[in-house]
């Protein structure tokens, strides 16, 4: 099985405590290295998560910018081909719809 560096460092600390060694400096050094490894792993993970989130936002913004002209073109077609003629028909009294139903 795979044992991570953090697990190995924690195991080493436990071994030193069990053996009752009085070498306080060695114990502190091992603990500091273990803490640094854990911090490094956490910061790397957090950076990856933030990068993914920023990347998703950027991709969404790019997609909106790319598709908005097409969307506006479709809206113009709807307004010019359907809405304006319907309103003219209502004003002329040739429609079965009312002004409120069209709005």
Give the arrangement of secondary structure elements.
Blueprint: H1 5-19, H2 24-92, H3 99-102
Explained architecture:
The chain has three helices and no strands. The protein has 103 residues and is mostly helical. It is rod-shaped.
Beta-strand share of residues? under 5%
List low-confidence stretches: none
Main pleated sheet? none
Q: How would you state the average pLDDT, rounded?
A: 86
The helicity comes to: over 70%
Counting DSSP E segments of at least 2 residues, the number of strands comes to: 0
Number of helices: 3
Q: Could you list some keywords that capture this structure?
A:
single chain; 103 residues; mainly alpha; 3 helices
In short:
With 103 residues, this protein is an all-alpha fold. It has 3 helices and no strands. Helices cover 85% and strands 0% of the residues.
């Amino acid at each position: 099985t795979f044992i991570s560096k953090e697990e190995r460092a924690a195991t080493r600390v436990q071994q030193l405590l069990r053996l009752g060694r009085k070498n306080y400096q060695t114990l502190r050094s091992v603990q500091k290295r273990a803490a640094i490894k854990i911090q490094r792993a956490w910061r790397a993970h957090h950076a990856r998560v933030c990068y993914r989130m920023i990347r998703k936002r950027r991709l969404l913004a790019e997609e909106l910018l790319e598709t908005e002209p097409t969307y506006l073109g479709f809206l113009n077609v709807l307004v010019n081909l359907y809405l304006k003629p319907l309103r003219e028909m209502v004003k002329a009294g040739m429609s079965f719809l009312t002004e409120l139903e069209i709005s």
